[in-house]
Amino acid sequence: MHTYASLDDFCQALGSHLGYSEWHLVTQDQIDLFARATGDSQWIHVDPERAAGGPFGTTIAHGYLTLSLIPGLCAQIYSVAGLAMGINYGAEKVRFPSTVPVNTRVRAGAELAGVSRTGNQAKVTVRVTVECEGAAKPACVAETVSILVAA
Length: 151
Hints:
By secondary structure, the protein is of the alpha+beta class. The chain has six helices and eight strands. Strands 2, 3, 5, 6, 7 and 8 form a six-stranded antiparallel beta sheet that branches. A two-stranded parallel sheet has the order 1-4. A hairpin with a 2-residue loop joins strand 6 and strand 7 (121-132). It starts with a strand and ends with a strand.
């Protein structure tokens, strides 16, 4: 993980690739918990027996489960020292080009794609690509937007 010394230092990384997270194994337990939390219990996610005969040959993670992994994965990639707080502002251009089959390892790569400064804060856009180990296409590509406030 790379720790930037200040908000100014982080903003200077505009256009740079920030690195990769560790690999994270997506398990059926995690998929089931997400299904219960969100009320999305479609069989392609939660019924291994039926899913074995379905289009993916196994259960798959919800797209929004994959998206929800991004904050934790990015916390393994970079941090910014001297912040009073960081606030999720939203996401742009979220896409799910491929599925995440159960028991697949995923990791995130991040690039600082945009910075807008106002006083002691910055609205930053980080382009995150979540990839499955050994897959040709990413599972998720999203531009996350955060407000970072210097202490």
